[in-house]
Records
---
Amino acid sequence: MTRPTPLERGSLRSRVAAAVTVAVALVWTLVPLAWMALSSVKPSEQVTAATPDLLFRPTLGNYRALFTGANDLAPYIWHSMLAAGAAAVLAVVLGAPAGYGLARTRTRGKRHLSFWIISTRMAPIAAVVLPLFLIYRRLGLLDSVPGLVLAYLTFSLPFAIWLMSAFFAQVPPALEESALVAGCSRWQAFRYVVLPLTKPGLVTTFVLCLVFSWNDYAFALVFSGPDSQTLPIAASQLVTQTGIDWGQLTAIGTIVVVPMMLVGIAVRRWLVTGLTLGAVTGE
Amino acid sequence: MTAPAAPAGAAAGPTRTAPRPRRPGRLPGFEGRMMTPGLLLLAALSIVPFLAIIVMSLARVRLLGGVGLHWVGADNWTRFFTDPDLGWAWIRTAVYFTLTVGLEMLAGVGLALAVWRLARGRNAALTLLLLPMFVAPVIVGLLGRFLTDSTFGLYTWMLRQIGYHGDIMGSKTSAFTAVVLMDVWEWTPLITLITLAGLTSIPASLREAAAIDGAGGWSMLAHIILPSISNVLLVALLIRSMDAIRYFDVIWVTTGGGPADATKTVPVRLYETAFRFFDLGYAAAIGLAMLAASIVVARAFIRVLDREGLTR
């Protein structure tokens, strides 16, 4: 990573301007998140106080209410973990070999193949939800976790294939060739030489697939029922005609958000590569 | 029906070309076998729904008492091209799209330049700035509602201190602004992240040479820095555009398209048509049009990658 040298970092004034810009951006970014976390540990009558209240006795009452009431949150968490986890695992397990094939193949249709893969990833969710809804209804896949997993694979699988192919393309083919000379089969060269080298790629792909599926709302809204509803649905169900329990809602929000932030930050070094589908590599 | 003709034509295909010698990389080789499971599933997951949505767009879909399709020909499409409400939805979508993506590009690039100039704490600042990207869009929307609630919202309270007393989600312009800003809050960090990767890859020697030649401040930015990262910026723009067409969760849970349709973009309208009015045929026509729009952007993305030799 190259840093600007002192000469070009500019005058004191421009440096102060940069620091102020970042500070303002940090406030804009963090205030909503901090407010959500704070509200989730406030006594519920103080959550909706007309003047923002910073003095309160922290309580876990909102979280406790989520797990005790008639609408226990535990099954929602379980469905979320199951659907997002399974979709991410399947995407990586199927996507990594396919990505390797795509990176190494020299077939003529490669361009068309690439285009088809990327366009399935970019298809608007609404354009996928509609036909799947009809197909699921026919096949009885509505309100089932496997149905959600399949729905998440519609965007996770092309994403994983494309991204893994970008990571594999960074591995010099000469490495495999020397493994072949040493007597490895193609599969062994892939499994024992190439795959270990792309571990960061595999982890990044897994994490991003997990985040996108975990955060999904549009698919779950249409496909899930009592036996498969996920956390984002639980959050939106707190919005009722009679009013919203904002204490509980901010608590769910915190539960949804914190794990994804942790795994996301864990792969920060490879995030640029991941989120630009390999078009830009950073650091 | 001309269906039987198709396999015959396909069978005639290979006989015309002379048998080629097998090259090492041709499809049913190792690469092909590696790709097969993944691509087969992807084909099932993309081609079947694609054909289904085309069929749906030509039919009236009955859901009660088992799924049934009633052929209506081009009715949905005639309606698609003559529906004034939908026309407005496209215009609103275009405005929403231009504003969100435009603001995100400006703020994201500006912020990246600022972070890049930081003498210390660059990694810590970037880590914190990236956090909104991991927040589920539905939580962004609900949190936005919480912050802008007319009686106890934190932002409502702040705005009241500086003299704004309106109900943010209650009036058309402010509701539209709010949903735009929520998207900007979540996705500006993505542009910052990508731009910063471009900035750090500019060779130091290039910047030093320019600095020695007397280029400083704005002229350095305009003539050296921005041109060197123009491709990275293009990738950022395309990536963000493709996702901006895809998502609508924020609008759905904040305003649901209101007030008075002010935030009813095409995806919102599609969801409403399909799952509130259960007019799945017409929704399918809208969905296909959206698909076409996103394919245009995807094509541009591929072309940029091609130009840089990145499709390998």
---
Amino acid sequence: MIHHDPLYKDTPLILSVSGVDKSFDGFKAINDLNFYLEEGELRTVIGPNGAGKSTFMDILTGRTKPDCGSVVFHDSDGHDYNLAKLREFEINRLGIGRKFQTPSIYKSHTVYDNLVLSLDRPRGAFQSLIYRESPDDREIIHDVLKTIRLSDRKQDLAGSLSHGQKQWLEIGMLLAQNPRILLIDEPAAGMSDEESERTGELLLSLEKKHSLIVIEHDMEFIRQIARKVTVLHQGHVLKDGAFDKVKSDPEVIEVYLGRQGEKSATT
Amino acid sequence: MDPALVAFLMRIISRTFNTKLLTGILLIQCALCHFVVGQVESANWHSVFHGLILADGDEETFVKDLEVFGDPGISDLYEAWRTGDVYSFEQDREKIALRQMSSSSWIKISTGEAIELSSSDLESMSKLRASRGVRRMMKSLIDTLGLKAEDPIVRQESAMKLGLSQNSEFLPALRSRLEIETNKNVQTSIHEALAISLLANGSPEEILQSVETLGDLKSVPGRDFVQKLYDTEIESDRSESALSQASINTISKIEAYIGRVEFIGNFFRGLSLGSVLLIVSFGLAITFGLMGIINMAHGEFVAIGGYTTYLVQTWFISIWGIDSYAFGWYFVISLPISFAVAAVIGLGLEKSVIRFLYRRPLESLLCTWGLSMIMQQGFRLIFGAANVQVNNPAWLLGNLSVGGFNMSYTRLFIMAIAVVVVILTWLLLRKTNLGLHIRAVMQNRDMASSLGIPVNKVNSMTFALGCGLAAVGGSVLSQIGNVGPSMGQAYIVDCFMVVVIGSVGNLLGAGISAMGIGSIDQFLQPSLGPVMGKITVFFLIIIFLQWRPGGLFPTRSRSLED
Amino acid sequence: MEAWRIVSYSFKKPRRLTGINWMYLSDNKKEIGLFLMIGVLLMLIPGMNAWGPDSGVFAVSSFQVSLWGKYLTYAVLAMSLNLLWGYTGLLCLCQSLFFALGGYMMGMHLMLMIGERGAYQNVLPDFMVFLGYTELPTHWVPFYSFWFSSVAVLCVPGLVALVFGFLAFRSRIKGVYFSILTQALTYAACLLFFRNDFTFGGNNGFTDFKDVLGLDLNLASTQRILFILSVLLLLLAYVITSGLLATKFGKIQQAIRDSENRVSFSGYSTTSFKLIIFTLSAMIAGAAGALYVPQVGIINPSEMTPAKSLDVVVWVAVGGRGTKWGPVIGAIVVNLLKSFATRAYPDSWFIILGMLFVIVVLFLPDGIVGLYHKIRSKFPQKASLKAITA
């Protein structure tokens, strides 16, 4: 039985996380976490180091199993899936894609092949054996290549790309999957100002078509993309709401933004 | 403290300190004391026996006098008398008895001193034989001689021997000894002996009583006798009798006790095997945890320890000889030497090869495998392909017996060394500067480096430490196993398992899993045999990893690619 | 891992994924040329033995035919490891176990074919008579059939790999842990086969084979046939490897090597991919072992020691892992070196091998093939053997 947050009663939810605990060797990384995501929403998750952001992502993608609580994905056909019971690749096939903090790509494959392998096609072992590229597939890949600005490097090995380009390639791999929820961990890390601004634009353009959860540290970047912000603290949701409201909340300032936050809040 | 343990410690202390190095006044004094006391005492029984041999009609009084003594020399002399090695001889017009030790050496029976005889003396001697009457009187004296011996263990053994013979003749001797016996252990043995003997010789009440006593004493030798008694009861359709009930009771008590002893035995052997695994895999866990190096040549460092022990032994023999007190020290000395030799060789390897392999575990596995082949062949070229002989020092031979269960001193000593190694390693890691650096590098090498910790130096030291520990393990192994070119190979697979189960780089985990694998291995071996035991352990490990893939204490890394 | 550097020599020309296509070789004229050339060159050995001169430089003795036949089965073994280690990143240390299992399965058939011509003139194999068996153990009976044995050659190693792989991959054992566990598996199996009561001949294993399918194994013509079969197996293994690598399956295989997590977060069950490759590789190794036994004439547990498995790793590393012909080159070069060194310097062979290992790992991570490319890229002249790694 899923209890929807009364606030969102009228809007379709795509993800409900309720009452989740997770501890490692006695340390409570996630503590009674409740989190709801609407269809097509772009949500930014912030929080100080050790707030449990990465563990939260791990739980959503099946990398870590929660000790208790439920993590439910509401599919468009009305089915509910308990993500805590599924394995990583099954969760991914439901349409939940993840971009890691450090770029995770296939460095000995070409940029093009990286995208081919990420396409949302039958992914069983036998199907992979008989897979043939269709004109459709090629079109999708070329679109993605254009979006992530790597068209002219499609036949280069991914290992030879710059750090920023690798980040982009990984986002591109996510796009090729065409997932319903994108989980994006620090997309702007290691990017130049210009690159990170373009990343922000890209994420904004994905809103509505996909649901997004973005974890970020960079305040400038958050200011650019933030719609609704969730602040995690000690594995628990401290506050959520509009960015402006959250950043001026005294509790948030105390645990996370500190003095620096005060300053940025007044400017 | 357990008296047996005290005895063990005393023995180690006396054996190790009683060397040429300590030939001080104390030692001379002791020797003198012993000499004087021994002389007085032995003179006593010697003169009584002398009187008995030359007695004429009053043998009975001499035999009575002799009953006071418990010296094993009495039985020896009696045997000589009986077989005709005792002669009478007239010296200074006095008749004395002599004993022929060999064709040309003679001793005076009255004092035990040697005596020079001329050829004319030999002709005047006549052979003396014990008469039939004396032999009858002496028989029970000789049989129960052990009951009066000085050493309580001899008294215990003698009592059991008398009891197991189930000869009613010995009952009075046992009973009279029980009255004056003060040693608790000997008292127990005499009770046990009496009970066993009474099973055959006692009245029905006494038999019932004895069966119960044997059950209370958990007498392992008594088990078969009680079983026999029970079988006769069943055969004669008296399965309901009090005796058969008591027998069942006693048998089950004894069997439970035997089971317990076997359990402790397996446990003990498991712990000692675990101790070896522990010492060796500590080194492995440290090198992998700190440097990400899977050292396949670790087994060869174990062999270095074994060979160093061998060399130290050879060196001791050539200087002091194998029977000297000093030889007893060689093993103790070889432990730190093994550590040092292996650490220096390890340091050399680290500087020349290993440092290129940090954080590349698969490459390190292959490269160190190459090193392992080179080292093994090196051993063969230097020491030959066959195993070399490493002897146990005398003070490690024998068993410590606690509650009917024997623990060999060698294995106890190994466990003690493991405890020392664990404590020293812990102190090194927790209380020294080097340890602090090692832990810092283990957790985050880049951060440690940027904080000014000399990472390269720490790496070298750690690798040397790991190799040194392996060699200590090898030195210890030389006492319970073979020393040969491939001695390390037999243990290396087990040690890898220990490290995997204990979570790589986690010392506590390595300790627990070493003890666990050692014990399970020893528990399975009696029923499955060594090979099937090992294979079963391997499959248990696979199953364990299904349940806890990261081992006992998995480290959680935040980075994606481990 | 530096493996991607190797592959950078390929993919100069885009190639589309077209599913399984055994004719894909025709895409690349040079590669198919090399493939055929190697096939023809190898066939020269039995040809020279049959029709060539009896003495002189071109004489090929029957001993050399079976010696090279042995090398070829080793080469196939190396290729099977390369499929795992070179292309999937799984350093498997039980490849020699699969090889020996294949060998044992064929050996069982060969033992039964001896019949009453053994030393004890009993229908039972000699070692069974010696150990006091009165009848054939049940699991031996089907091995009277050659075809059953041939199927077992593939299925038994495959089944072992399937079960062990399932347990290992399911609990996410990878990297060094996988290597250590596979080494332990080999060790355990080796101990088991050393036992007399395991009904596989204990220490001595199987030997004194007489004939197979009615062909006398001591005849040169039979050895030639076995040699040709080995060449065919080698070429087949090559086609399977290349064919697989050209499909999306092969690309995922290499992707697992680079970033296993990304693969599973792209919706692929890495467990089943790894399991399939592990099983396939075990079957190829088993087939190689089955051809090894009749050519060498003996199989015993020393063929499945952990040390033998690491030998295979040396061959692949020396030749160049993650390259198509590297393992073949490595297996042949190291074994030639071995047969030379064990005769010339019997005492120092292990030292030479060990040094080779250390040097290759430290200075030649891509082996001989990598060295070739390094030299070629220093002297960019005419294009030639690029096909080797394509």
---
Amino acid sequence: MPRLYKLWLALIYIIGLSALGVLLWVLGSILVNGLPVVLKYGIGLFTNNIPPPMFLFFGKPEVGLAPAIVGTLMVIGIAFAISLPIGFTAGILIAEFKHSKIAELAEELASTLVEVPTITAGISIYWLLVIPMHNPSALAGGIALSLIMIPYIAIYTAETYRKVPMVVKEGGLALGLKYSTVLFKVIRGLVLPGVISGVLMALAKGAGEAAPLLFTAGWNDKVTLNPLDQVSTLSVLIYKFGFSSQELWRELSWAASFILVFVIILPLIAISKIMVKKHEF
Amino acid sequence: MSSKYAIEIESLNIKIGNKHVIKDISLKVPKNTVFAIMGPSGSGKSTLLRSINKLWDLYPEVKVSGKIYIDGIDVNEIEAHELRRMVGMVFQRPNPFPHMSIYDNVAIGPRLHKLYKKKEELDKIVEWALKKAYLWDEVKDDLKRKASKLSGGQQQRLCIARAIALKPKVLLMDEPTSALDVVSTKRLEESIVELKKDFTIVIVTHNPQQAARISDYVAFIYNGELIEVGPTKDVFTRPKHELTEKYVLGKV
């Protein structure tokens, strides 16, 4: 029996380490393939337009990812502006008004939405918005992404507010303060790090999603700041260029992966984790 | 409309779910006294206390009926937050706002109720409240320290300071020493006796000795029923009810 136990333990270790290995391999390959491209094209990557499809006929094209970087920020910004108020309100509702039917419904909805395949958010916004507007756009992409981000923010917010002991909230109420004052002023300092951490995690999740944007955000070789224009994003660019037979496209796909993971997503997750640490009292 | 009683309770009944926890209790608490509610664990004392400042409003499963007047004002005629502005509370376990400084814990009530015009006035209120709670000397050099860094006894006195900073008419205390050691308990009891000059205090305790030490009036509650009430001296020296005598002697 002890020998069997040891064998079992060894197996657990091997499986655990290989899971970690896969993660490191993914990150490592992005680093190894992406960083050289970023160094090769340098700052131009962040300022130049994406070379047009016929770049081979135009001599030496400018090589850059600026439209995809700006597009990502626009789409994420729009999604953030929509999902923060809705997600936060839903989270408060779920945590603090648990006796109401709407709160129950909101919780069900949030936990279901988290599980829904993200591509369905894309297709539904395509039917709802892109077809009536006759054009994909940063706005449509942002709305599709907000469907992914709202449940994240709601769940994180609810968790954070639930963590505050009832007796602390009662301490505020006993001072003759309204419930809303207790929630938004008295315990603000206690919940803010947790809520911000949730928002950052939602942003990281949103930034990495390609599926909801495929039908909704469109494509653009050039930088635009008009939310009704089509935009390219890093995630969609990775998808589009990743399989290409052209060396330059594949290079750009790796560079975009590097920027997305090491410049946008990992820092967001890191800040979020630090926030959560600070939240413990 | 002012009354000579700080609190009047008339035929109060409280049900939690199907359980009848407080059974038809009526009480009158004279002003500027310490009024102890004593009884064994589970007798309903805390339940009774929490109905005085309508804390049960948050719990739909708790049904409160009967009349409660604070200084002659029917509590059902005013909003819960207005009532709680007049009735401070100190809880069984110290519950300071852990993320705030000592100063902010005391200042937050006056700040959010806008009770002052200048910062100096707020400083004065904070100092006054901390002194009244017998905490000032221990914390005056470092008011910016986080409340969570204080000892349990200090946290509880901070909670008293937080409550009295609003100068309520009544201060409710729900077994405030149950989580404290002997020295802290003694300190807290001293501050309670000091506080009755300014406030009416209702204190719940499961410890008859504590009731005898600090209270002017005492009510004995058993199984949700009021067994006996009167001046502390009378209840402890000449109890009218056999059950009270047993309880006071530690036999219940």
---
Amino acid sequence: MNFPVIKGASYGLIQACDMVRYQGTTQTSEMRLNPASEYLAQMPGHLRAFADAVAYPPNQVYIGNLRPRALRDIPSPWYNNPIPNASAQGTYGAILPQEDFLGLMKAVDKFDLVLLEESFQNAAAERLAANAAVSGWKALAALQKGQAEAAQIEALVQEHKAEPLYNGGKLVGCVKKAHDFDAALSEHVMFENLVAKASAAFALALLLQKTGLAAEEVDYIIECSEEACGDMNQRGGGNFAKSIGEICECLNATGSDMRSFCAGPAHAMVTASALVQAGIYKNVVVLAGGASAKLGMNGKDHVKKGLPILEDMLGAFAVHIGENDGVSPIIRTDAVGRHRIGSGASPQAVMQAIVAEPLNRVQLRISDVDCFSAEMQNPEITEPAGAGDVPLANYKMIAALGVMCKDFEKSELAAVVDRIGMPGFAPTQGHIPSGVPFLGHCRDMILEGALNRVMIIGKGSLFLGRLTNLFDGVSFVVERNPGKADEPAQEATSNEAVRSAMAEAFSSLAASLRAQ
Amino acid sequence: MDLENQRRIKEFAEQYGSEDFILVLGGGEAEASGLAAETVSVGDPTFAGPLAGVSLGLKAYHIFELKDEIDPAVYEEQISMMEMVLDVDAIMQEVATYRG
Amino acid sequence: MGILQGKKVAILGDRDGIPGMAIEECVRTAGADVVFSTTECFV
């Protein structure tokens, strides 16, 4: 089988402290229910500086400057052990400050909804023109016009016609509602959608910059965030993917949006692989931007326990899936795991369906997989909030499943967890941590010979949508390329063989029909 | 605990009373499980939801504590793997604290 | 008599612990009447 390959991956982070305060749902809910709360008063004192976010070890792993297992050697808490001389530029991506990102939101806005105060906009335009990832965007021209006055922005926000954009506690802009009363086009929805669009476009720009993929080579884009765009007649009509490709001038691409909560990226990777393997498209990009709603999601626990607000990062990624080049790691499309509607809800049924079943199908055991990337949430964020160490729990489940499948002895549990696992390093941005943050590292580690086979797992809490109680999970296996990309001559021969076999089958079928 | 879930549990408690109505938890971690048990017993300690300052006096059990009452085959199929994953003793101890 | 037999039960499952549906299957075998079942997600 000529499997598709992972040609490259990019990762973007945006520190967005003011969005934590004004758009994160934990904070906006608190403002609605308990505006005089102690938490809202204390929270701003727990926000961290951009330099601290850059030097934060998990963020350095996310953009590719450190391998995930390097976190094992950094004493906890990681926020007290910054990486010296850390750079906002990474092997796979970059970390952007909020003031630059607000400029990107204005640049990607096609309906004049984003207003920025004049001096703020001009400064952002200047900085973005010097940012190698996006400096070539024609869309940056939007920053050369339409500068707003502070009074105009203030009035729109006060009249509830616009979502405020703050920077450093100062109102610097707004996102206007796109319709008088359509809830699907409200100022808040437009804000969230423009955040998702701008951050995904940033990740795509990083992919083009870092991997040498040309924009015009992209045939198809699958966007897999957790937002929905549309109007009141089709609330989730779409299409983020094309709107993002347009910004990066992927003029030959079309695309669509794929959703399954945090499992979305895994579904998108499987679909992209199928499209490439079937020969429908040569180059597919799977991407997603960040979720402003989840900023500061566990902030109450972090403030209560004296931690910084670690959920100040919007996450984004883009992955290029292409035809087999004989070198890049392959995606084993014959070993795709899926949680079926009838699989059952118990954790062991889920893990059986997404880990054991697909491996069994290709005669592999759990012990044949070097490393698993399940849900890579940073435990420093989830543990203080009572959600435990999510990646570690997944590794324990996989190891326990291995014990139940008689791959390991129960006494080996801890050693197996250590061997197949790595510390979580992704921001708690829902779809962002779900398996895919490891793809960049995984590609290079396989090419370097450090790994041979990896399983990527996405899991999603479908019940949050109140349409089903079902859970979701999808997995796929990434493997070292055996270097046997089909050569044209061989392909011709095998096609010839198939044709003659089919001709034989048809003639014998015809003969048997005649005999009847 | 989720605010909407607090509201629903409050309604059921009013409908059925604290004698005939109990809560069964599946929390993955001791502290969070204890928090849920505390919320339905003496009220929401975070003062965020409908159970803030409301003492329903409900009894909450973690499913691990009820193992002896469950059909062993079903328990094996649904729960047993997580006994290898989660800190069973810590969770049971924490949840039991709030039943007085 | 057990804790669950004949009781009305609300289930609060955890996505990263035991999900609501798995608890439902269990408590029904002990004679409980499940009136509410949900699963919380912290991530």
